[in-house]
User: What shape does this take?
Amino acid sequence: MNLKHIPFAKLLGLTEGQGDFLFELTDDINYTNHLGTVAAAAQFSLAEFASGQWLLNTFPEIAPNVIPMLRKSEVKFKKPAHGRIRAKANVSQETQDEFLHIFNLHKRALIKIYIVLVNDNNEEVMNGVYEWFIQLKK
Assistant: This one.
């Protein structure tokens, strides 16, 4: 499944990224705020969708059988964002292995996904941690 097909992602106009980038927002005036920079809500949404897509891409064997729910997040805006913004995830193999171990034992688990948003100059404009609660469907 690709989350870009979810109605809200379509409304946002998310597009697939290239290489390590999961999604991106194009350079579009509709994403800007009162300062002419990319709105915080647009950046947050891009990062949230990227974290969810990372889950689907990384654990395809369990994805159809679970209910994923964003539990909490913490973001930091590093510098004003202009133009196209791209999102990539960074999760250690140790974190992935621990998640699967706990999930296989208890049929539910938490996982923290670290997301970085960069501009076209590859400068970090936002980073965040998106913690997901994953539970086996009953």
User: Anything to note?
Assistant: The first strand starts at residue 15 and ends at 16. The chain has one domain: 3-136. Residues 104 and 136 are 10 Å apart (CA to CA).
